[in-house]
Amino acid sequence: MNKEAIEKRFHEYGFDDYKWITGRDVIVQQWVRFKCIFACPGNSAMCPPNMPSIDDCRRFFSEYEAVAVLHDQKTPQSEDDDVALSPKAGEDLLALERQLFLDGNYKAMAIPMTVCSQCVECTGLLATCRQQDKARPTPEALGVDVFETVRRIGFPIEVLTDYRDTVDRYALLLVE
Ligand code: SF4
After folding, report:
1. How much is the pTM?
2. Where are the domains of the chain?
3. Whose CA is nearest to atom 1 of ligand 1?
4. Which protein residue's CA is at the shortest distance from atom 2 of ligand 1?
């Protein structure tokens, strides 16, 4: 794996702020899954209960020695400013994943920083997902404790209480 070449790709696609960890540093916890199922109003096809078990998620991450934590920071300009819809959240990241794969990193897989918004209306079921080639789960959907994972490497993240608060979001890019 050529980390220098991979990082060059990160910058080409506009991901300038990142840190490397291993898959074993990605903290996967059962409580995250419970919060998804019982305390979140969303029902995307890329969310629990459509997701693999927590044990499978943990095993999946542990199979990677190189995981880039990609950081994006935005401050909403108004109450309607949905920073989750920035290109970095979806299209750019998928394009980067594809490029890294074509470069020979055959295990490359992107875990985006926000829930899939490829369709106007989500089917809510994995079996009927309309764009499975583009749909990816978020870290939280795979049981990742994003707060703990990023804080351990010195990245900022806080619970937000006002729409004007600066938002720190994180994608994971597994590369090998
Ligand atoms: S591609 Fe469409 S149907 Fe599939 S998870 Fe994304 S929004 Fe839902």
Report:
1. 0.93
2. 3-174
3. 131
4. 119
